[in-house]
Specification:
CATH topology of the largest domain: BirA Bifunctional Protein, domain 2
CATH class of the largest domain: Alpha Beta
Radius of gyration: 25 Å
Strand order of the largest sheet: 3-7-8-14-11-10-9-22-25-21-20
CATH superfamily of the largest domain: Bira Bifunctional Protein, Domain 2
Helix content: 25-40%
Strand content: 25-35%
Structural class: alpha+beta
Number of helices: 15
RNA sequence: CGGGGCGUGGCGCAGUCGGCUAGCGCGCUGCGUUUGGGACGCAGAGGUCGUCGGUUCAAGUCCGACCGCCCCGACCA
């Protein structure tokens, strides 16, 4: 059971974050540094993420499959940039069955290489294309500094891997899946995101172009919440993924990969949470409604429970996920706080007065003011009232997150303005030549701000790179990031 | 890997200049009273004080080494 309150966000944001995660029982620290135990409530939240994405993957023609955890070390080395990028964070198995292995096995940090190997065998003809596969898996990256959900050494994710006959098709796939992520983030997680292309420095090791969705957290820091990569023919060449085309010519495939991880759970925590704890969007919430029966004695209890059961049954029939908190040893006040900590979107209180008047007291988690958050709904029609209200709460959380984000997005044209905006903690959209040198300088001048992306939705234009003054065609977002 | 902090019942902490039976709050168990915003009383259970070594008549406390965790930076989903 969660208890007492969390460190306020204004006092210490990262302590608030870890407090909320532990008190809401999303996750716990593991015996091994940098690893976490995902508890049932946190795992259900992840399952919500998973089903929202999986549904969309299937709808766009993808199938799930599973590839092995262990990858021969030599596979990683086949793509030069890929090894270089991942070498520092590999976990390597050197012994098995009490003997030293002839070839070390890498615990997958991502699966482009094993999957590329399989695709080389599977693909012979243009008729075999496209291959559209996703896998749900765990991966391991030896991170120096970790944080629950945001960066753990082992994490759960999905990784999509596709192979296509043409560059155009692969490019379309890359952007299609970026849109799938954005659609999921906005409509399911209620997190407004910016879709864009990563700078060369921030690009995935081995990709031609990387795209991401970028979200603003409650402390205004940026979080890369999902990525989609156009891998060009880099992996096709490294793994010999070739097909015989209509014109009887042997050609290399064009591949993509895209991933979204348990980090999304951290994003939901930080995009919506407040000083009372989590605030979960109804689409993802493990429990959309918690019913709290109110009674003073056995007589009242037996008067109240039939109504509770009736209301709950109606809601469940309407497809609402309801949890009944009938713990006898706790007072209602304790339960209210407990479920607010856990972010349940709507609380239904049913007591003697409600039984008498035929009402249910509904309290919204998305509204801070207690009086405004509460309304008395007639029991009749509750199966319509509640889903409608959940829809409103979903929209309201997205609205609040969007308003917050938009209040902290700034367009700048001079380097002085740029530095002032970053210094103030906001995001700056500025003309940028895309070079590593400029990014490094910005990082040094601002105490760590990095380019987030060149947003896809930007007015065509031309301007001077804020650092070099060079004429460039695109602006990029810069911010401090997780 | 650099900087900071911390290891004492499940959790959060106190423990003074080394001293006698290691304490407090929360939580937990039982009983009773409570219950529309974090209830209360009574009675209980629960500890090799992170590990190893040293100093001492005596170590949670002093010294040394090690281990671990958290936070802040560089690197990364």
């Amino acid at each position: 059971m969660s208890s007492q309150s969390v460190t306020p966000r204004s006092v210490d944001y990262s302590r608030w974050y870890t407090d909320v995660i532990q008190k809401a029982e999303l996750a716990d620290y593991a015996p091994v540094r940098g690893c976490m135990i995902i508890r049932p409530y946190g795992y259900e939240l992840w399952e919500g993420v998973r089903s929202g994405l999986d549904r969309r993957f299937k709808a766009t023609g993808h199938q799930n499959a599973y590839f092995p955890l262990f990858i021969p070390m030599s596979f990683l080395q086949k793509e030069a940039e890929h090894v270089e990028g991942f070498a520092p964070e590999l976990a390597v198995v050197t012994h098995g069955g009490g003997k030293e292995l002839e070839e070390p096995l890498v615990v997958r940090p991502t699966s482009e290489t094993v999957i590329g190997h399989a695709y080389a065998n599977w693909i012979q003809s243009y008729r075999d294309l496209p291959v559209l596969i996703n896998q749900w898996a765990n991966v391991v990256r030896w991170e120096l500094r970790t944080r629950l959900f945001l960066r753990t050494m082992e994490f759960l994710w999905q990784e999509g891997h596709t192979a296509h006959a043409t560059y155009e098709e692969a490019h379309e796939e890359t952007l299609r899946m970026l849109d799938v992520y954005a659609d999921f983030a906005i409509n399911d997680a209620a997190i407004p995101v910016i879709r864009g292309r990563k700078s060369d420095q921030e690009r995935f090791a081995g990709a031609v172009y990387s795209y991401s969705i970028e979200a603003m957290m409650g402390d205004r820091r940026a979080l890369q919440a999902g990525t989609s990569h156009n891998l060009g023919q880099n992996f096709a060449k490294a793994f010999d993924i070739k097909y015989l085309d209509r014109d009887n010519e042997l050609k290399y495939c064009w591949t993509t990969s895209w991933g979204l991880s348990t980090r999304m759970v951290g994003a939901v925590v930080m995009a919506h949470g407040d000083d009372k704890g989590l605030r979960l969007p109804p689409v993802l919430a493990p429990y959309q409604v918690v019913a709290v029966p109110i009674y003073r004695d056995d007589a009242e209890r037996s008067a109240v429970m039939p109504t509770v059961e009736k209301v709950v049954a109606e809601l469940r029939d309407a497809g609402v996920r309801v949890h009944v908190d009938d713990r006898a040893e706790l007072t209602p006040g304790f339960k209210f706080n407990d479920w607010e900590m856990r972010g349940v979107p709507l609380r239904a209180e049913i007591g003697p007065k409600d039984v008498e008047k035929g009402t249910v007291a509904l309290v919204r988690r998305d509204i801070d003011d207690r009086k405004q958050a509460k309304l008395f709904a007639p029991q009749a029609g509750i199966a319509q009232t509640v889903p409608a209200l959940l829809g409103e709460i979903q929209a309201s959380l997205l609205g609040q997150a969007t308003a917050f984000r938009d209040a902290h997005l700034r367009v700048v044209d001079t380097y002085d303005d740029f530095k002032a905006v970053i210094e103030a903690g906001d995001w700056a959209l500025a003309y940028y030549d895309g070079s590593a040198a400029v990014e490094d300088q910005i990082k040094a001048d601002t105490g760590g701000a990095s380019s987030r992306c060149f947003p896809l939705d930007q007015e065509p234009g031309e301007g001077a790179c804020i650092v070099t003054g060079k004429k460039v065609a695109e602006r990029a977002w810069f911010a401090r990031a997780y």
